């Protein structure tokens, strides 16, 4: 598996050690030096679930390819497919429902950038359009409504975006 870097906590309590002696917990997500994402299984075993190769930029960074929200994780694989796992109480996984997921699930969406906080997830598609899912009671998704969205919904930004930030009540 190689050295694990870029620890992104996603919950859990049982810890394990990798080859460097670092301690990690069940439910944590890691990226190896080769850009492969691994999920620490919440099964009490010292097993890792290989998620797959992440989208990497020319400098070898996975920035914008991994997002952690409120007990959820979204990743963009090397083929630009968006995958999500975890708590989904407000639809923040973008899967069309509010069912929690215990395995990474393909959203069926192609994306080039992802960010998430609390119960809101926002992506940028390859055409530069911005889409959001999850909590929207203050209009944080930017679709002109105050209705939670369980599927990624278009905002009024239809092209040209290259990065986006999201807060608890705003995008």
Model description:
The protein is mostly beta strands and about 170 residues long. It is about 0% helix and about 40% strand. The protein contains no helices and 14 strands. The termini are far apart.
Descriptors for this entry?
171 residues; mainly beta; four-stranded antiparallel beta sheet; globular
Distance between the termini: 36 Å
- The Cα radius of gyration reads 16 Å
Low-pLDDT residue spans: 1-22
**Hey, roughly how much beta strand do the residues contain?**
35-45%
Helix percent reads under 10%
* Strand order within the widest beta sheet: 1-4-5-6
Provide the succession of SSEs: EEEEEEEEEEEEEE
Mean pLDDT: 76
Shape: globular
Q: Give me the secondary-structure category.
A: mainly beta
Number of helices, counting only DSSP H or I runs of 4 residues or more: 0
Question: What is the tally of beta strands?
Answer: 14
Largest sheet: 4 strands, antiparallel
Short description:
The protein is mainly beta and 171 residues long. The chain has strands at 4-8, 15-17, 23-25, 29-32, 36-40, 48-53, 66-69, 72-76, 81-86, 101-110, 113-117, 120-124, 130-134, 149-154.
């Amino acid at each position: 598996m190689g050295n694990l870097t870029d620890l992104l906590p996603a919950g859990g309590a049982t810890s394990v050690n990798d080859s460097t002696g670092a301690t990690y917990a069940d439910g944590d997500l890691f990226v190896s030096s080769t850009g492969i994402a691994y999920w620490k299984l919440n099964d009490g075993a010292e097993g890792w679930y290989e998620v797959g190769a992440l989208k990497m930029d020319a400098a070898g960074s996975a920035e914008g390819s991994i997002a952690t929200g409120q007990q959820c994780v979204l990743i963009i694989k090397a083929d630009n497919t968006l995958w999500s796992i975890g708590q989904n109480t407000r639809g923040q996984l973008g899967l069309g429902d509010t069912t929690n997921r215990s395995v990474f699930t393909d959203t069926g969406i192609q994306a080039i950038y992802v960010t998430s906080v609390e119960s809101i997830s926002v992506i940028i598609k390859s055409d530069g359009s911005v889409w959001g899912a999850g909590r929207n009671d203050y209009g944080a998704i930017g679709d002109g409504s105050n209705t939670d969205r369980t599927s990624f919904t278009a905002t009024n930004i239809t092209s040209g975006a290259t990065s986006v930030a999201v807060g608890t009540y705003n995008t």
